[in-house]
Structure formats: structure tokens, C-alpha cells
Amino acid sequence: VSWEDGSVRWALFDLQVDLTPSGAVDLALEYGPDVADAPPAKGIEISADGEGVQLDAGLLRIGISRADYAFPARIEVQEDGAYRPVTGFGGALPAIALRDADGKDYTVSGAVDDVAVEEAGPLRAVVRVDAAHRSADGDTLFRSILRLTAYHNKPFVRVQHTFENDHTGDLYSVVRSLTLGANVEPGRLESVLIGEGEAAPGAGTVSLRQPLDDAYTLRQGDATLREGEHAPNWLAASGPAGAVAVAMRDFWEDYPKGWQVGPSGIEIGICPDVSDVSYPQGGVEEVRSFFYLQGGQYKFKRGMSRTHDMLFAFGPEPEDAAQPVRPFSEPPLIRVEPDLFVRTGVLSDYAMRSDATGQYDGWVEEALAIYERDRVDTRAYGMLNYGDWYGERRSNWGDMEYDTPYGFLLEYLRGGSTRHYDLGWQAAWHLVDVDTCHYHEDPNKAGRQYLHSLGHVGGYYPDNYLPGAISQESMSWTHTWVEGLFLYALLTGEQRLWEVASRTMEILAGADLNDYDFTNCRDCGWPLRHLIGAYQATGRRLFLNGARIIVERVLERQRPTGGWERLMVPGHCFHVPPRHMGNAGFMVGILTAALKRYHEETGDQAVGDAIVAAAHYLIRDMWEDAEGAFHYTSCPGSGVSPSLNAQVLEGLAYAWRVSRDEGLRRIVLAAWDACLETALSTTPPYGKDVSMRLRSMPFILQDVISAREAGD
After folding, report:
1. Nearest to residue 171, comparing CAs of 411, 566, 473, 485?
2. How many C-beta neighbours within 10 Å does residue 343 have?
């Protein structure tokens, strides 16, 4: 991604670093005209044509055929100067097998729709496979996208499998099972290592199933070998020719999940058969956790998807093959200098962790503990739930309101723990897979995000099913979140995050801006924020031009008072008609924060002036000095709460930055102190409160620190 002058704004680097468990190493990047690139003597060699892709990665040779696909690929391992086949050469297991509710089978076994090289570097290469699941009579149900990542001279590959419900003829598709089949050479596995237990497939098929978040069973034939709460996320199977280990990130957290190992291969239960499991019915527990598992079958709404991240590793013995499992399951992270993103201007100014941020940092750690405790208390696990938070208006899944991935990743970048990164990562994948509609009977809705609702996507239950429930599907740009997706994609190179976020924003920047006009501050503010975030991430002027359309309408409608007054609706004004003219403070805050990002990118003086005028309007109309907080709206009968300050302060603090107005400085400091001293919500949804503050407070804090220094 480049700046306007063509210089580098974002660049993705591949590197290989050997680390001990929990180890660390310092890295330095050298760049400039005098620095010579030093590629490996022989990197990954790639050959691609209409028949498929061949990779020579050194220790592994990988073949992916378009006419005869095998999962995860036809892989050969180098030993003593020769290659031996390990997966994909013959065998009875189909690459992908889906069985619907009526027992009809759809498979990927043979030809696939497309095989393409997505990335081709000397150290890392990514091949994408697209395939429809087909029945014997030619019908199709669901699609699979597989991404195989090979690494130079490493004895493992990463495999990401995404299933998508592309069947738009019905609101739901009901599935009994979905499995991936890896046929392992030489066709006779002699032992299986799962965690601390070992079994011999020759004595009967070894199977493990995790049907719930707190129960798994390991069996051989009809005999139970072991039961427990959380299953190991890996297994290693071996035979005369060596061993293969398979691992899946977030295995039990994404239940239902399963493994099955027979003499000739390994079956991975993305959706294992759970028809014999009685999932709780009725009440909050069903609606929250088991809405898609009723009757022991999987009920997927049209456009739903889910990605599972796996590792295939090879070695002479099971213990050797399993060595990469831990770093795959808990991957090491690169932490750049915390101020790099601000110093280079790729992100807005935010406050890094330092002695000056101690009080806020303590609040963040409290928020992290509350968020994680809430996940356990609400059992926020399961294939369609993991990564999200529950309890919006008591009954809805949050669908990442206020951009949970962005908030947690931002905290990691400013010096927080790797746990912040992980929580944001889990949230990002849920957002891109479940909360985004990938297919719809109305093509204009495909690519948009759902807002907080029952079952994340609505449609599972009738209206008024639970108090506060949003039962039917609803999509809105005021409940769309892309900044976290783009930022994770930039930092990791994850193509799915990038392509889905880009598709969403192309919809907004396209027909949705035709005949655009101002409606209210929130309905303009969030789309403007999304467009500027997309422009900052991609450098595409399409998004900046779209933002300019919104800004022009916003400036046209700003009144001489500095506000965007309107006759307030019930809920914003608590008086009988005639209701007050005015606005909701949080809506003005959303808009001014978005205008701030636009002003940072363009330097448009009119926009800077508009932000300052809006800040003075907010203070005159809603500020209560004695409370150190704003009214909820312009209505004098609306409540006053310092917890709302986080939604108002980013634009207000920026107004002080560009104007240096002493009155603004005083109120920014008072409002910040009051907000920070206000405890997190003591009632659900905790995720909403945490996300709302994490996404804005680091930016506010940077101006607060400057404002304090200006008064010294």
C-alpha cells in the first residue's frame, strides 16, 4: 500500500526465526538504496498451469491438481535425499464430504472449480482452491475455499478451510455433517497419539468428538478410552513410513468438532455428526448457545461461513511431527516499536503505554478481566459464537458493535499483552465469517454485515421471542465494522480478512452513495469513518472520494450554532410535543470523530472549522460542569453519565488540538477524568462497553496528555 507520492505506506515481510518456547529475539529492519536483498539460495519453486500448481518447498514437495484434488494436497517429504509420499496419493476418503438432513451426500472428490497461486514468495507461498460440493446427481450445496500455505524448508503446511452457504433458494440449509478427509500413505496407520493417550487403528477406528464446550469423548470402536472437558487440539498418526500430525486452532472453543482415524487416513470433523446429542431446548440457553444445533443437526442461514485453521506436520516419529503444534496453536508475535504507527502517520495519534498512561492502563487490564470472565459466564463458545460477545439489549449477540477487533488490536499495538491481540483476532474471524452475509437472494445485500441480533444474523426466531431481541435480519452502515479487519489484514497478510472487508466497503462506496444526503449525525458519521479507514488501509481513492461526498453534505447541513439540530424523536426527548430541537451527544461525537480522520488525511480547513464549531455546540447544549459529563441529548430531561464521555470526547479533544482554545482544554480534561473514574458497566453487555471505550480512548488520551502539558 502506497502514499499519494508512491512511497511505501504498508509493506508485508516474510521471515523465519527459530525461537525456544516462550523465547524472544530482537529483530531489525534494514532498508534503503544501499541495502542488498539476500534471498535464500533456493527459495520455494512454483509451477502453475491450467492443470494445477506444483510447489517445491525444499523439505516438502506439494502438488494440487485441478482435475483430481486431494486434501490437503499430494505431499511428499524429503528424507535421505529422496521424497516419500505422505498424503493425497489414493485412498477411500473424499477430500470434503457434506451430508444434508435427508442423508444426501455432496462431496469434493475429483475436479475442483479453481486452483490459483495467491502469494508466491521465496519463503512462503499460498495456493487457493475453490470447490463446490456436488452430489452424484449433479446438485450442489455449499462451497469450500481452501488456502494452503507452504514454508521454505519447513516440514509442515498451514491449511485454512472455509465453508460458505451459497444456497440462497432457502433461508436455511440443514446439514448433518461436514468432514475433511486426508488419505495418508502408505495406507496403513499403526498408532494414533492424541494428547497423552495412544491407540492402534488396527484394533478399530479411533474417534474423538467434542460436542459441547465442556465435554469430549475419545473412543475406539464402541469402547470409551477417555472422557474430559476440553479435548487436545491435535493428533499424530504414524506408520512404517513415518508420522503426520494434524492440529486445529481453537478446537474445543469452536465445538462441535471431531477427529476420526482409521488405518488409511484421518477424517477431520468440521461439523461432526451430533445427531445423538440432545442440545438444551428453550429459554436463553437455547437462543444464546444452541440455536443452530437443535435436533442434533446444523442449521446454517444462507450466506453464513466459517473458517478453520489447521496444521499438517510431518516427521519420522509422532513426537517429531507434533513439535510445531504448540507454536502453531500459540503463535509468536512480532511487536514493533509502539510509536511506529503514529510516527509514520499510518494511524491517528494514540497514546502508547508509559508512566503518563498508568491510570488508563489499569482500567484496560480491568476491562480485559471482565471481558474474559463474561465469555466464561455466558459460555460464548461454539462454531457460530466464538469470538463474539453476548447480551446486547439482554438477548442479542453483539456482532462486534463498536469494532471489537479494532479495539483489542489497538491495545496490543500501544503496548498491551498478546492476549489483547488474540481476543481481537478471534473477534475478527467471527466478524468476517458469521456476521458478514456472503450470499443472499437479494444480491445487493451480499457482502454487508448484520447488526446485533438473535443468532448473530436474525431469522432463527419469531419477533418478540425474548425481551429486547432483534429477531429478524437487519443490516446498517451504523453497525458495520471494517477498521479492525483491515488492520489485522495489513499486519498478517490474511487474504480473507482483506477481501471481505474490501468487498463490504466497495458496496458503500458504490451505489449506496448515489443521491446521498444528510440524515443524522450517526448515519453519516459511521459510513464516513469506515470510508476513511478503508482509504488509510488501501490507499484507494475510491474510498476517499466516497468520504468527500458525505463530508460535503455534512458541511451543508451544519447550522450556525455548530450543531445539526433536528426535532428530536421520542427516546431522545422526554417531553410531550412539541419536543425539543437538538441532537444526541453520542451521535455528534461519532460524526466529529469521523470528521477528525478526514481532516487528518486532507487538511481541509472547512472541516477543521466544523469540528471546532461542533465542539462548542456540544458544550453549550449538553455539558454539565458539576457532573463532568454530557447529557445524553439536548433534552434537559435526558440523563447525564460520564460513561458517555468516551463517545463524545475524540472529536472534542481534536477540536482543542487544532484550536488551542482554553475553554475546550479545561472541559476535555474534566470529561476525561470523570470518564476514567466511572466503572465499567456492572450489567451485561460488558463487550459493548469495553469495545466502545477501547476503540476511542487511546486517541483521546494522546490529546489529554498534550492538554495537561499545555497547562503546566
Report:
1. 473
2. 11
C-alpha grid cell, residue 414:
500501544
Residues 103 and 177: beta-carbon distance below 8 Å: no
- Tell me the HSE value of 585 on the side-chain side, using a 13 A CA sphere: 32
Which residues, listed in sequence order, are joined to residue 60 by a DSSP beta bridge?
77
Amino acid type, 187: G
Report d(CA 17, CA 327) in Å as an integer: 12
Number of domains in the chain: 3
pLDDT at 39: 67
Question: Strand, helix or coil at 677?
Answer: helix
- Render pLDDT for 251-264 as a digit per residue (tens, 0 to 9): 999 999 999 998 88
Grid coordinates belonging to 204: 478399530
The answer to whether residue 5 sits within a structural domain is no
Residue 645, phi-psi category: left (phi > 0), alpha (psi -120 to 50), beta (remainder): alpha
Residues 291 and 361 grouped into a single domain: no
Burial of 325 (0-12, 13-18, 19+ CB in 10 A): buried
Give the H/E segment covering residue 141: strand 140-151
* CA-to-CA dists, residue 658 to 343, 596, 597, 662, 664, angstroms: 18, 10, 13, 12, 11
In a domain, 710, yes or no: no
Which residues are registered as beta bridge partners of 127? Answer: 117, 148
In angstroms, the Cα distances linking 426 to 271, 385, 395, 513, 648 are 19, 10, 21, 32, 28
Report the alpha-carbon distance of residue 109 to residue 132 in Å, rounded. Answer: 10
Which set of grid coordinates corresponds to residue 40? Answer: 535464500
Of 326, 314, 208, the residue nearest 261 (C-alpha): 208
For residue 41 the three cell numbers come to 539460495
261 and 224: one domain? yes
> Which pLDDT score is estimated for 509?
98
What H or E segment, with its residue span, contains residue 492? helix 483-492
From the list 466, 375, 462, 461, the residue with the least C-alpha distance to 423 is 375
Please state, in angstroms and rounded to a whole number, the distance separating the CA atoms of residues 109 and 113. 12
Q: What is the biggest distance separating any 2 CA atoms in the chain, rounded to whole angstroms?
A: 87
Note the pLDDT tens digit of each residue in 151-180: 999 999 999 999 999 999 999 999 999 999
The helix (run of H) or strand (run of E) holding residue 210 is: strand 206-212
Bridge partners of residue 259, in order along the sequence = 208, 268
Cis status of the peptide bond prior to 685, with omega within 30 of 0: yes
Long-range pairs, 15-18, Cβ under 8 A, ≥24: 15/123, 16/123, 16/151, 16/152, 16/154, 17/332
CATH code: domain of residue 645: 1.50.10.20
> Are the C-beta atoms of residues 65 and 49 closer than 8 Å to each other?
no
Residue partners of 272: CB distance under 8 A and separation at least 6: 177, 179, 209, 211, 256, 257, 258
Chain segment 526-558, per-residue pLDDT in tens: 999 999 999 999 999 999 999 999 999 999 999
Query: The CATH number of the domain where 180 resides is what?
Result: 2.70.98.30
pLDDT tens digits, one per residue of 581-623: 999 999 999 999 999 999 999 999 999 999 999 999 999 999 9
Contact 445, 437 (CB under 8 A): yes
Q: Which residue has the cell 461461513?
A: 305
Instruction: Please tell me the distance from the alpha carbon of residue 556 to that of residue 559, in angstroms, as a whole number.
Output: 8
Strands (E), 450-580: 566-567
Look up the domain containing 496 and give its range.
Answer: 336-508
Q: What is the pLDDT of residues 365-407, one digit of tens each?
A: 999 999 999 999 999 999 999 999 999 999 999 999 999 999 9
The candidate with the shortest Cα–Cα distance to 647, out of 672, 613, 670, 683, is 672
Asked if pLDDT for residue 239 goes beyond 90, the answer is no
Say whether pTM exceeds 0.70.
yes
